[in-house]
Queue: 2 jobs
Job 1
Amino acid sequence: DAGITQSPRYKITETGRQVTLMCHQTWSHSYMFWYRQDLGHGLRLIYYSAAADITDKGEVPDGYVVSRSKTENFPLTLESATRSQTSVYFCASSESRLAGAAYNEQFFGPGTRLTVL
Amino acid sequence: AQSVTQLDSQVPVFEEAPVELRCNYSSSVSVYLFWYVQYPNQGLQLLLKYLSGSTLVKGINGFEAEFNKSQTSFHLRKPSVHISDTAEYFCAVSEMDSSYKLIFGSGTRLLVRP
């Protein structure tokens, strides 16, 4: 299917376990983003990527690792999950600014609800 | 540093009544402004955006917003709401020189009652 997908949609894990959340987009967008959504905080940027093999930290990167070996995939790994990482995680993508527009809209996936027990 | 404030965490309103969701921002540089909507158990969808030009911008589903630079506000309005407008609404800003980063407000839950 075309668009941006996330898997799994729901995940329950235990403290200390490694968890990987997957994000896949079919538009060949250059930019990809990971956000977490918590009550009272809106969405906060965890990591972003401008292209394959180029990643950078956002506002709340601690405890997370990302990689981007292919343009279409941007997995987010929690190396040792903590209860404070219980959240809803959203992936997003957008075209590069080089596409000519002043701003390129970010398109969001459906989210992954992660619970860390 | 940029910040976005949505003072109202929840706004209850009756169907067919008008509504205004407030958004104020803080930034030392020029910004782009956005409103996103999130329906239950879904991702975010862009409602409207202000990039330049007319300060009154119209979006999908009958929503509009007005950019007020002097008051650093970007309030969202709809003259007559429907039950289907019940959702979470997020205001966001992006600096013009780094337009790939969005800073979100904490969200306002619009609850439309029959």
Job 2
Amino acid sequence: EAEVAQSPRYKITEKSQAVAFWCDPISGHATLYWYRQILGQGPELLVQFQDESVVDDSQLPKDRFSAERLKGVDSTLKIQPAELGDSAMYLCASGDASGTDTQYFGPGTRLTVL
Amino acid sequence: AQSVTQLGSHVSVSEGALVLLRCNYSSSVPPYLFWYVQYPNQGLQLLLKYTTGATLVKGINGFEAEFKKSETSFHLTKPSAHMSDAAEYFCAVSSNFGNEKLTFGTGTRLTIIP
């Protein structure tokens, strides 16, 4: 069964450092989502791509966060500089355009900022 | 705008007992509704979803949910709890426009008592 891949699974960094997370969606999925899940809360959307285009980044803190999906396949989410409040699980999901509206989630990257 | 309220951040049931996790939603357009399960340090797995049609939806692992428009609810049930059901459960809503972001509730942690 095809899965969404994410790496790394865990990342520990110090504040003010740069971090990057990678996501490889299920093959053929045009839509890609990055969610942030703070401990004890539900995931919240950071950015949504349709192919290589950003559809929604209204909740992305653009002063420090950036996301790209250059060839419309895999995607990278970057934080620079990291702050203590960025400690969270970063989840990537992908969806096909068949109308099923099902989002398939990867295992996530657990970020700890010291 | 859409929102989800999950009543009860922690629910405990005995093994073999009925599981009932509550979810109420708010949406200005016809909603799509989802239940996801999350095990520790893992991504989210889809349990079931409602888009259109039959209001009683059956999912994996013996779970089901009923969409009640008049009550704006989508409660999750399972007749007989199993130890392996212990996890965090999230209710989510999106619009029926297709490929829309998910808005999640804050989650319910289900504990199974042997």
